[in-house]
Amino acid sequence: MNFSEAxxxxxxxxxxxxxxxxxxRELNAAILFCCTNAEFARDLVEMSIPIDAASYAxxxxxxxxxxxxxxxxxxxxxxxxxxxxxxxxEPDKIFTRGVExxxxxxxxxxxxxxxxxxxxDTINVSYYQYPPILSGVDTFxxxxxxxxxxxxRAAAKIFRTIGDDKSADxxxxxxxxxxxxxxxDLRTGAAS
Length: 192
Description:
alpha+beta; elongated; 2 domains
């Protein structure tokens, strides 16, 4: 189902054609809610990034859209030739007794910083993306897999704003039931 079709479905439920902009906003909000409250396999990006082979300590710019598209958070980082994944730390935990820890990374502002125990010319990263903001005939995997889950959440939000709490509660309950049933499948990619 594309975005316009989903908006039309929401409007057919709430029977308020004047709420088209609100329906579009609430559908995007439903997609964002679902994707950021779980770690869906379809939102995961894995890639190998070239780095400076002559430096142990490096940083990457998270705003570089050639590398990180709609970056949300890291799942893992690994340097070839180093056993295990790099551990993620808070920036203030990178030093222990005045010594910088190795094979660790931290995010500070728009940068991810890491220090390796061995030189490498690449770093393998996996990260979760934010969903795009949809409009028109845009599509998104969650609209293909669970469109009525999103439609129910958007309808519930609109019903709440127009004072129809009974309909809002019913559609919100339908959304939560489907979301909770689907969340484990969507995390592993089984339903995608």
